[in-house]
Every structure is written in C-alpha cells, then in structure tokens.
Amino acid sequence: MKRTNLLSFLPFLVLLLLPHLGSKPILASEDVSSYVVYFGSHSHVGVITQDAMDRVRETHYDFLGSFTGSREIATDAIFYSYTKHINGFAAHLDHDLASAISKHPEVVSVFPNKALKLHTTRSWDFMGLEHNSYVPSSSIWRKARFGEDSIIANLDTGVWPESKSFSDEGLGPIPSRWKGICQNQKDATFHCNRKLIGARYFHKGYAAAVGPLNSSFDSPRDIDGHGSHTLSTAGGAFVPGANVFGQGNGTAKGGSPRARVAAYKVCWPPVKGNECYDADVLAAFDAAIHDGADVISVSLGGEPASFFNDSVAIGSFHAAEKGIVVVCSAGNSGPADSTVSNVAPWQITVGASTMDREFASSLILGNGKHYKGQSLAPSSLPHAKFYPIIAASEAKAKNVTASDAQLCKIGSLDPQKARGKILVCLRGINGRVEKGRAVALAGGVGMVLENTNATGNDLTADPHVLPATQISFKDSLALSRYISQTKKPIAHITPSRTVLGTKQAPVMAAFSSKGPSSVAPEILKPDITAPGVSVIAAYTGAVSPTNEKFDPRRLLFNAVSGTSMSCPHVSGIAGLLKTRYPSWSPAAIRSAIMTTATTMDDIPGPILNSTYMKATPFSFGAGHVRPNLAVNPGLVYDSGIKDYLNFLCSLGYNASQISVFSGKNFACSSRKASLYNLNYPSITVPNLSSSKVTVSRTVKNVGRPSTYTVRVNNPEGVYVAVKPTSLNFTKVGEQKTFKVTIAKRKGKVAKGYVFGDLVWSDKKHRVRSPIVVKL
User: What span is annotated as the signal peptide, if there is one (predicted)?
Assistant: First the structure.
C-alpha cells in the first residue's frame, strides 16, 4: 500500500481526534518529560529548500496539536523539528500522551530523550603518533591524496579551533558541495577555516533533561577535550613536535590528514554522569547529512536498544541512505560479555586495543625486583633514591573505612602516616589521577596504582600530579607479598619514557565492550578493533589533561584511552577510502576494512585480552585494522538499504513500521528471509539448533581479473562447507554468489560459542571473514 503523506493527512487527523480529547489539554499532566517522535524518512524531491523544511515543521505542530487540543500548546512543547532527512520531532510530553502518539500508524516509534555517554576512560575507570600497522604508508596516503576530498563530521563535545591540528595551511577552497555553517554568532572568538569548514551545537535535548542553560552553552567550542581529540584523530593536519610532557614526541596527524572536518557539539558537562541526549544526536545527524559529510564519526553511545528507539542507529540509517559512512565506538563496558553498543548492521562498530608504544615507568623494589608500569607523570623522584612504600590502607585516616583508604579517595589518608612515603592504591571507583591527588594532599611522595583481577594487564598512562606508575594485577600480587613480608619495604619509581616496538601488541583493552550483540546476535559486533589506549591527539585549552578542576596544567596534545579514541582511527581510514574510491558504498568500505584485518599480534601469535588469554571475535570483530591492505581488498561484500530493510523484516519488526521507517514503498516479503543472509563480511549463527544451516554471501570484484579459492578454518565441533570452492572474476564490478553450510559434527560437542574463519585468496589478496557459531 502506498504510504499516506503526512502533510495531506493532518487536516483530516485533526478533525478525527479533536472530538475525543475534551477541553483539558493532555500536556496538563505534571508527569512531563521529553520524548522523540519518529516518523521515518522524508519524501523531499531534489534540493531541500527552506520553504520545504518550514512546511514540515508546520505539519509537526499540526500533528501534535491534534493530540493536545491546542496548536499553541504543541508549538510550545516541540523543541526540535527534524525537517531535512530524518522526519520527526522532540517535545515535552507526558507518558500517556507519548503512549497515545506511539499507536498512530504514521509513527515509527516514540522513545524517551535518553542520556548517552562519551566512550572515553580518561582518568576514570568504567590520532596519529601510533607506531604499528595503524599508520597508512606514505604511498597509500599519496594515492588517496591524504583524504583531501573527504569531509569528516564528528558528533562529540565540539572542537578547539585554535589547535594546529585544524590549520588550513596548504588547503584549497572549501568544496562547493558543502552546505554547513560556522555557528559562531554568540561566540566571536570561534572561527572556522578551510580545514575546519563547519561547526554547530545542539543542546535543547540536554536542556530538556537538566534545566535552563546560560549563554556560555551557545558555542561549538570544546571545553572538555574529547571532541578535539577525536576529530584530530580522524582528520587532523600534520603537526610536528606534538608530545605530552615531552613523551611520544613526533608529528601528529589524523587518519585523513588533509580531509575537511566539521564539529557537531552534542555532549555537554555531565549531570549525574549524563553528557549527551538522543534529541540532540538526531538533530546533529540530520544536519550533518544535509551539510554534505562523507564520514560521520560517533564516539558515544547508550545502552543497547531496539533500532527504532536508538538515536545513533536511526541517524546512521539515514546517513547510510545517502551513502555516508558512519563509524561508531563499541563502548567502554568491558570485559563483560554482551556489553557492546552501536550494533546496527549499517554502522561500523570499533573496539579498542593497544599499540606497540608504551610510556614506561618502572617500580623498583628494595629487593632488586623491577616491575614494568606505565605513566605520563611529568615529575619524578630524585635519581635512584628509595622511599618507604606502604599499602594505602595502612595510611587510613580516622573514621574512614579501609576500603576508601585502599582506593585513595580524597580525605581518606592520614598525613601523619603517608608523609614521605610511596602509597599503593587500588584501581577502581574513583579517578586514577584523583587517587594521586589524594596521596599528594596527604604528603605522599609517589603512588603505585595496582590493577585488579578484572583489569589484569590493562595499563593506562595517565598524566599524574606526582611521580606514579600503574602495574599489572600479577605484579600487584608480588608487590603486596613484598610489602607484607619485608620489615622496612622501600621502592623507587623511574621517570616516564617513550618505548616503541613493544611486544605484545595489539592487546585488547579491558574496558573495550564485547559481543555478542544483545539486540541482533546474528550480526557480529564489534566489527573491528583499532588503537584506543594512550592515544595522543589534539586537546582543548580550556581544561587540564586530567579534566580535574584541581589541575592547573594545560596541554596542546593529550594521551587519552577509550573506544572513543579507536573509533576515529577507523573514521580516518574511511575518509581515505572514500577519497580513493568515491563510488564505493558504506558497506563496501566496511568490508574492505574488515576483510583485511589481522587477528595476530607482533610476536606473532593470536591477539590476547588483558588477562593474556586468547581474545575472540567478540572482542575484536574481524581483527585489528590494517589500512595499507584495506585500500586494496580484492573483493568486497556489498549491501544496501533494501538489504537492511529485509534484515529488519527477518528480525520481526512490524512490516508497516518498516514501510514508514524507509519512507519508500517497501514491503516485507511474504516469505521470511533468513537472518543469516544479510551480505555481511562476517558469518554468525547464534543458535545452531538444527543439524545444519546454509547461508548465502555475494562478493564483488574490486581488483584485477583473478581466480579466488576458498580455505576454511572450522570452528571446534563444526564442519563448514563452501560451494563453489573457487570464484573466477574477469572484470571489475563482477559479482559472484557462494553458499556456506555450517553443520554440527557427530558426537558430543561442547556447548557455547566457537570461532573459525573463511578466506578467499588469489595469492595476492586474502579476503577473510570470521565465522561465529553457538552450539
């Protein structure tokens, strides 16, 4: 059935519903919150004019007015009207009204204006100077012209425009297709240029949740550091001499160093831990799509939710419709299973791993033992001078629990017991740098930060305010034994130093969120992993490198960790690929990135997790990104919007809902398609309940004519058969389909997930897909 146009439907709707509403407006309820009302896609034809957008806004007022009994009330209630590519509005509604609206046939979904989080660990628990295989070779950069034809948009805390990473030196005119603006009308100090070609801010959703905002919020300027860091990682210019307190010195550069960049500020100072809101994220997506972005980088997310109730999934879908690559962070809720967020198949989801560079700072004990730690503390102890070392719990202040003292919370330590000593603090709960602050306030001369069993060998170099180092869980146990068994334990902390070529690397970060997806376990997430630990990139001049109010230091560059940091690495690579292959779809770019990834470290051996156990695709997806190979993948697994809609049909989403969502005359097939047949670069069967499952995949040749043969690494207890076993391509763009049958082996097999892979190779290219099966 042809979709009814909302514009023509509304006058009838008003007459139909008003007699049933009575004279009391529904919004009179005291239980008013903010919601997003989502109608799916617009049906704009050609250039979207201001007049067309104004008409859409009027229909939104009319639509809500038909429920409230007053167009004036509706106008006051709506604080966002999405008028360009995303069709919907955000408004102050009560629960009953939101529920009533959700039942309307023109509505895809109504969901609360939920809080989202930035995916950075900073100094809390729960760009370019990379040394290993992340950095594209100079020849690859030249072939892709350093990404100069691509426009990368970043949804984050904005940007610090004065950073040299956003210098436009050597760049030509702004691309004529760019429609964005520099929203600096209320901040005369903020300027865009031919590099930073646009900046906007969105805070109405934030204000709806936290209350009225003052005029200082009316700027895209980054007063947090996160947005500048992520944007410069994706597309920052070449900046010689970048370093953090002299460490990691070198030339900083983004993945696409000559790309044009744009900042969309959607995250604000945390209130009860919440920084970003759905309503603002949707508004930013709608703007970025319309402005002309090629890549949208999103280093934030919320709890996994239904795709129609997830602002990042919705915004990403509309971006993908327009051929825009959307790259998202996987989240920092690891190492627990099923914690991954941003799991839509039209997104590229990125986990975080280490690189082969460390900021080493060793702990030397009085017994001569050395334990390697990491730190970016600019201060150091006198050379070779040893100090008494004690567990922080032994320096407990009066009326304080031993647990709080062990965590080195502010005010938990007794200066009489701590003065002149190195204190050993336990990682967790409060900020890592804050712990050092507590030690310094109590007169301690240094701090050793002990990892827990959960954080294992996961070490983060922080810019501590006193000499300090962080050590692994195993070494923490040895340290505890030394302190307890030694009459007068002493120790020394060595100054921080930069070490390149470290082994093992990469290792999965403990914080990196893991699969399987709780929303759609048939799609392997994350898709890929990239450097996300102690990443150096541009920072804001508004706050310290620790983001702590007590810290007066300011840096041009900072080292930060999180999947927020790994996400823009892949965004930068996507910018290179978009420049090199402008006709490639977002799915083709994702495929090139995934199928050329590696699952091996630099030993070489399999990539490990933070406890030095073998990691699985639920941690790293297809593996660690290798941009030099992604630029020449040989074959790609391509897919488009219709494929995604069929996938939603297979997931059981309402057919009429999907039709409205797509904005097209799309209908789910009467014959339900298999969930496993989305043409994805990985194969996941989350329940092999029958004896076997057969899935179909299609590959497209993007290289020279060649013949590929298949090799399968069978998951344990599973037999995988591929037909045909060879594919011959005679031209670019030619497509071939093959079938993969996955069967249980006879006999007793262990329950749970097992992993393997499927590789097509012509001896020059190696096109690898992970296989994930639950028995």
Answer: 1-28
Could you tell me where the beta strands, DSSP code E, fall in 320-369? 325-329, 348-353, 357-365
Interval 486-540: pLDDT, tens: 999 999 999 999 999 999 999 999 999 999 999 999 999 999 999 999 999 999 9
* CATH 3.50.30.30, the chain: domain bounds: 358-499
Q: Which residue has the tokens 């597309």?
A: 235
Closest CA to 93 of 143, 31, 150, 138: 31
Strand order in the sheet with 300-301: 267-271, 274-277, 115-118, 300-301
Report angle CA 679, 685, 691 to the nearest 5 degrees.
120
> Of 34, 476, 564, 662, which one is the catalytic site residue?
564
Cα 470 to Cα 662: distance, rounded to the nearest angstrom: 50
The CATH architecture of the domain made up of 358-499 is 3-Layer(bba) Sandwich (3.50)
Pick from 108-122, 204-218, 370-384, 409-423: least confident: 108-122
pTM recorded for the entire structure: 0.93
Report how far residue 255's alpha carbon sits from residue 712's, in angstroms, rounded to the nearest whole number. Answer: 33
Catalytic residue among 226, 229, 569, 624: 226
The H-assigned helical ranges of 254-299 are 278-291
For residues 679 and 685, what is the distance between their CA atoms, to the nearest angstrom? 14
Instruction: Give residue 421's pLDDT.
Output: 98
Catalytic residue among 156, 224, 278, 286: 156
CATH 3.30.70.80 residue window(s) in the chain? 33-112
Structure tokens at 581: 């292959």
**33-112: which CATH architecture?**
2-Layer Sandwich (3.30)
Residue 125: its pLDDT value, please? 40
Comparing C-alpha atoms, which of 484, 459, 489, 488 is closest to residue 474? Answer: 459
DSSP state of 245: T
- Contact, 329 vs 566, CB < 8 A? yes
CATH 2.60.40.2310 correct for 635-639+678-774? yes
156 is catalytic: yes
- Three-state secondary structure readout of 65-124: HHHHCCHHHHHHHEEEEECCCEEEEEEEEEHHHHHHHHCCCCCCEEEECCEEEECCCCCC
Q: What is the 3-state secondary structure (H, E, C) of 478-546?
A: HHHHHHHHCCCCEEEECCCEEEECCCCCCEECCCCCCCCCCCCCCCCCCCEEEECCCEEEECCCCCCCC
The pair of three-digit structure tokens given for residue 507, joined into one six-digit string: 């290792």
How far apart, in Å, are the Cα atoms of 271 and each of 125, 268, 542, 662, 710?
Answer: 18, 9, 19, 35, 53
Is 765 among the residues known to form the active site? no
Peptide bond into 173 cis (omega under 30): no
Active site residue 8: no
For the chain, residues classed under CATH 2.60.40.2310 are 635-639+678-774
- The C-alpha atoms of residue 233 and residue 572 are separated, in whole angstroms, by 7
CATH of domain 123-332+339-355+507-631: 3.40.50.200
Cβ density class 538-567: b for 16+ within 10 Å, e for less = bbbeebbbbbbeebeeebbbbbbbbbbbbb
18-40 burial code (b ≥16 CB/10 A, e <16): eeeeeeebbbeeeebebbbbbbb
| Environment class of 411 (CB within 10 Å of its CB; exposed 0-12, middle 13-18, buried 19+) | exposed
Q: Which long-range contacts does 173-178 make (Cβ < 8 Å, 24+ apart)?
A: 174/260, 175/149, 175/151, 175/260, 175/292, 177/292, 178/151, 178/260, 178/291, 178/292
- In this predicted structure, what is the pLDDT of residue 245? 96
Contact criterion met (CB below 8 Å) for 217 and 280: no
